[in-house]
Design brief:
By secondary structure, the chain is α/β, with parallel strands linked by helices. The chain is built from 14 helices and 15 strands. Strands 1, 2, 3, 4, 5, 6, 7, 8 and 9 form a nine-stranded mixed β-sheet that branches. A six-stranded mixed β-sheet has the order 12-13-11-10-14-15, with helices on both faces. A hairpin with a 2-residue loop joins strand 12 (about 350) and strand 13. It is globular, with a radius of gyration of 23 Å. It starts with a strand and ends in a 6-residue tail after the last helix.
Length: about 425
């Protein structure tokens, strides 16, 4: 049996589609435990109606204590061999349970990781590439223990709990979700992976993750911009308590760096952005002992002299960098230019800065410092070759580590 556990908070708009897609599964040996987290809309009424219609559904209620506490309550009631934690605003392929259980049984897995589609709430479009819970190529083939994939244990999948967990594995390691507003799944998921003997992957997209739901906790990150750090601290302490720190330290540090930048990229308000900048510099980076090289002084010199800067890339990392220049260093938008090889979705600006294709940039700009704001090193190298061929002469690469280095050290200008 699979115990499907769903925390529900003000999800009246989505919960019926969520439950209908579960009740229509081709695999029938499951229970659904819905935990209403103090909803203020009609979510509980809808849950009670479904509970009366199908005996596999049970409803628990609690005061608003967030998803982590709700998931823990669901775990206490779970009767299944496997645990599957889902969200109330997502929906699922009809063979999700059948395919995951079959794969888990074949591989005798402690944890089975599968993939997801992104579903854009605004456009109603399904995006195959924009969201991935699984980097199958990074994981490789077969079943692996945590120690066998120590270098990529936190990189081949996201910290989301939408994975099939063997209940015995969770109970043996006494794992629970953190009682925090956001990121309560990071500790649980990565701790479970860290002590797993048999991890498997299923290279199929079996659920639809809703993107752009402003009511979700991921849609309100500005309220708690630094809470993710509590999850990272907890994982660090767990690894040390299990004598696993040395084994997973490199992967932990890489994950933490990208997570810090990712959370900066999720913030909407200047107040939250500047708060997290200071929190990272004065607390998080120090506590986690993240070691980084100092920033390239060419960037500090350009900023000091208010020279024009060309930024290649229009993604999350570029956005974080542009906002750092504007909010921390009061850099004017007209001193920056975003360059891309081709515009996606007719994007004309990023944070108010104009986006141009390379062929649109005049030769006079090609002598200015050009910053490649892309996280993957292989892509950075490819872009550098393209820029050099186009006549750009002063090129600097900015990945997650370099971005966080700017947060810690600032713009250094000494030559």
């Amino acid at each position: 049996m699979v115990s499907v556990i769903i925390p529900v908070y003000n999800a009246e708009k989505y919960i019926e589609e969520c439950l209908d897609s579960l009740l229509g599964q081709t695999y029938s040996d499951f229970e659904i435990i819905c935990v209403d987290d103090g909803s203020k809309d009609h979510s509980l009424d809808i849950l009670r109606r479904y509970e009366a219609l199908d005996g596999r559904i049970s409803v628990l209620t609690q005061k608003n204590q967030y998803a982590g506490v709700a998931r823990n309550a669901g775990m206490e009631r779970a009767k299944g061999k496997y645990l599957l934690f889902l969200d109330a605003d997502d929906f699922f392929c009809e063979d999700m349970l059948e395919q995951t259980v079959k794969k888990a049984e074949e591989g005798h897995t402690d944890i089975l990781v599968f993939d997801a589609y992104g579903y854009d709430e605004t456009s109603r479009e399904i995006n195959v590439a924009s969201w991935s819970m699984l980097s199958a190529d990074l994981f490789g083939e077969g079943i692996h223990s945590a120690t066998q994939i120590a270098d990529i244990i936190y990189q081949f999948t996201s910290p989301s709990p939408w994975k099939l967990f063997l209940k015995e594995h969770i109970e043996k390691n006494e794992l629970q979700f953190q009682k925090i507003k956001r990121a309560n799944d990071l500790f649980f998921t990565f701790a479970a992976l860290s002590c797993a003997e048999r991890i498997g992957v299923l290279k199929q997209k079996l659920m639809y993750y809703r993107i752009g739901n402003a009511q979700s906790l991921q849609g309100s990150v500005d309220d708690t911009p630094a809470v993710f750090a509590l999850a990272v601290y907890a994982l660090r302490d767990f690894l040390k308590s299990r004598n696993l720190w040395r084994t997973f330290q490199a992967a932990f540090q890489e994950m933490t760096v990208s997570l810090c930048v990712y959370n900066l990229g999720k913030l909407r308000t200047e107040e939250a952005y500047l708060y997290l900048l200071e929190k990272l510099k004065n607390d998080v980076i120090l506590q986690l002992e993240i070691e980084m090289e100092r920033p390239d002084r060419r960037l500090g010199k350009a900023v000091q002299n208010h020279e024009k800067i060309i930024i290649y890339g229009a993604g999350m990392l570029a956005s974080v960098f542009v906002r750092l220049l504007m909010m921390k260093y009061e850099y004017e938008r007209n001193h920056m230019l975003i360059a891309v090889s081709s515009k996606q979705n007719n994007v004309s600006e990023l944070c108010g800065v104009s986006v141009l294709e390379l062929q649109e940039i005049s030769d006079e700009y090609k002598e200015y410092l050009t910053v490649i704001a892309i996280s993957k090193e292989a892509v950075q190298k490819d872009v550098e070759i393209i820029l050099q061929a186009e006549g750009f002469t002063d090129i600097l690469k900015l990945g997650f580590k370099e971005m966080l280095s700017l947060v810690e050290y600032g713009m250094e200008t000494e030559i």
